[in-house]
Amino acid sequence: MKFKDIFKNKNTMNAENQDKEQQIDDATLETNETAEQVIVKELSIEEQLTQDLASEKDKHLRLFAEFENYKRRTSKERVELFKTANQEVLQALLPVLDDFDRAMIEISKSEDENLLKGVNLIHEKLKNTLVSKGLEEVEVKAGDAFNADFAEAITQIPAPSDKMKGKIVDVLEKGYKLGDKIIRFPKVVIGQ
């Protein structure tokens, strides 16, 4: 009987050992699965961080490019503003300059040389000041071919000769430009 008891005890012990081994195997599997999940989670966190970094770099580059475009655009607008800032003042002075030109023609008919010299000095000073601010005269004279882009035709008259047909016969009012922009077109008479 003792042998049977030993055999039962041995079988019971074997069963208990197998249960313990199974528990150890299960625990090892769970640990391995947990470790794999941690590794997967770490990889996904690294991938997530890599994607976030790439996204932030892209945002940064786009923002930097947008800022550079803004700087370029505003500096261009500022240059244009400086070029044309005097436009209204210069346009207001153009009739004064025209009157001065007509006065110079009439004063030159007088016999007083001192008056002519004094007024001529003032006239030249005014012209030089306006030129220094960017004002230029549009070069149009009698005999030039008429170009509607650079002159305004006031009227047409019969051409004095066949050579003057379609050409400028007379310039009634000078034209001026500020930089590349014409601020007042010359008024001309063309031959028909």
From TrEMBL:
UniProt KW Repeat keyword: no
Keywords per UniProt: Chaperone, Coiled coil, Cytoplasm, Stress response
Record-linked CDD domains: GrpE
Signal peptide, first to last residue: none
Keyword Chaperone: yes
Coiled coil: 10-37
UniProt superkingdom: Bacteria
Pfam assignment, any one: GrpE
Subcellular location: Cytoplasm
Assigned protein family: Belongs to the GrpE family.
Quaternary structure annotation from Swiss-Prot or TrEMBL: Homodimer.
Role, per record: Participates actively in the response to hyperosmotic and heat shock by preventing the aggregation of stress-denatured proteins, in association with DnaK and GrpE. It is the nucleotide exchange factor for DnaK and may function as a thermosensor. Unfolded proteins bind initially to DnaJ; upon interaction with the DnaJ-bound protein, DnaK hydrolyzes its bound ATP, resulting in the formation of a stable complex. GrpE releases ADP from DnaK; ATP binding to DnaK triggers the release of the substrate protein, thus completing the reaction cycle.
Protein name per the record: Protein GrpE
Organism encoding this protein: Flavobacterium qiangtangense
